[in-house]
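task queued by scheduler; priority normal; single chain, no ligands, no partner chains; default sampling; output format set to structure tokens
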Amino acid sequence: MPRSQPDVLTQAQQELYDWLADYIGAHRHSPSIRQMMEAMGLRSPAPIQSRLRHLQQKGWLTWQEGQARTLELLGGGSAGIPVLGAVAAGGLVEPYDDLQERLDLAPVLDTRGLFALTVNGDSMVEAHIADGDVVLLEPVVDPARLRQGTIVSALVNGSGTTLKHFHRQGATVTLEAANPAYEPIVLPADQVTVQGKLVAVWRQV
């Protein structure tokens, strides 16, 4: 049973929760809203979103509304920070979408909302971030409040994601490597979405 004696569910909520538990147990990642709709025999996402909100309010799961892949059951199945994919530290790679595994740092960190990405490339070596490291990032709500030079995971429209020092001047963003072998990436600010700012680096040795 979920922790802290969560509230009793309605039949519809219990049906969705049980299906989610089976799906996540079999696939090791959360389903999409569309998959939930199909499983529940629904034609609209609204009832699914309503059930998810109630499940969250009752303490059965956590979920960032609008992002199905962030769903996590609180029944003991999945713990830790989600590793959502890879981020380039060289060129650009396709943006992450599905949870791949979980990094359990619960004894060390208790900050909600953190996510993790695996680094591909060597463009941040002088910031002590090497190829194969796992970076822990905190979601950024307001990029305008970032300090110049903050290390971020940035999504470039039509290209992919990259890990770089973030600088903004007016309507221009510069994504700067920590390796002189890489030229800065200079782009219009409206082409760059900051996904998260660096909190910590995890390296297996």
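post-processing summary
- The longest strand covers residues 192-202.
- Residues 66 and 179 are 36 Å apart (CA to CA).
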